[in-house]
Amino acid sequence: MQCEMCGKEEKLIEAVVEGVVMHVCGNCSKFGNVVPLQPTIVNEENKRIQEKTRIKQDDLAEGIVDGYSKIVKEGREKKGLKQEELAKEIAEKESLIHSIESGHIKPSFKTAKKLEVYLNISLIEKYEKKIGKKDVNFKDELITIADLLRAKK
Ligand SMILES: [Zn+2]
Questions:
Q1: How confident is the model at residue 28 (pLDDT cuts 50, 70, 90)?
Q2: What is the whole-number distance in angstroms between the Cα of residue 114 and the centre of ligand 1?
Q3: Measured in angstroms, how far is the CA atom of residue 24 from the centroid of ligand 1?
Q4: Ligand 1 geometric centre to CA of 64 (Å)
Q5: Which of 24-38, 101-115, 131-145 has the lowest mean pLDDT?
Q6: Angle 99-118-137 (CA atoms, 0-180°, nearest 5)?
Q7: CA separation (Å) from 132 to 78, 86, 123, 129, 148?
Q8: 14 Cα to the center of ligand 1, angstroms
Q9: I need a labelling partner for 78 at 20 to 30 A (CA). Which of 43, 50, 51, 63 fits?
Q10: pLDDT, tens digit, 9 for 90 and up, residues 37-56
Q11: Ligand 1 mean position, distance from CA 59 (Å)
């Protein structure tokens, strides 16, 4: 089997990377955010890892600024767009735009990013988290594991 991170043929171990279970080599398992799952691991330990992953996702959700509903609405009106038109432009449902603007639903990072770019607004707070020794800014959601591996070198 090949390491899912670097492609090296080696004895692989299971590790949680960015909340996804992957099969990686010993080298990659040491990398940054990887939580190794030993075969002898107890249920308690698994629970702890799941908890950690869940907390991380919650952290990310907090990256959307508080006044997002107003910012989206004003940005859209500045562009002279109806909710329906904006929805079409960013390939989302009109009902989602409505929910975001009424403050009922926080946009996902992906949606927020699209809104930011399309409306030229700022929805995602500068949100930094340490991964290994390298500061990673989650504002740039294009960061991939490959980027992180490069950053390590
Ligand atoms: Zn590897």
A1: confident
A2: 33
A3: 5
A4: 33
A5: 131-145
A6: 90
A7: 41, 39, 27, 10, 10
A8: 11
A9: 63
A10: 555 445 666 666 666 665 55
A11: 27
CATH number of 68-119: 1.10.260.40
Domain ranges of the chain: 13-62+142-152, 68-119
Q: Which of 41-45, 86-90, 120-124, 131-135 has the largest mean confidence?
A: 86-90
Q: Which one-letter amino acid corresponds to residue 54?
A: R
Pick from 24, 133, 28, 38: nearest CA to 48: 38
| Sheet strands (E) in the chain | 13-17, 20-24, 35-37, 128-131, 134-137
At 17 the pLDDT is 74
Q: What is the dihedral of CA 107, 108, 113, 116, to 10 degrees?
A: 10
| Alpha-carbon dihedral sign for residues 11, 136, 55, 18 | negative
Q: Which two three-digit tokens encode residue 149?
A: 């591996």
Ligand 1 centre distance from Cα of residue 127 (Å): 28
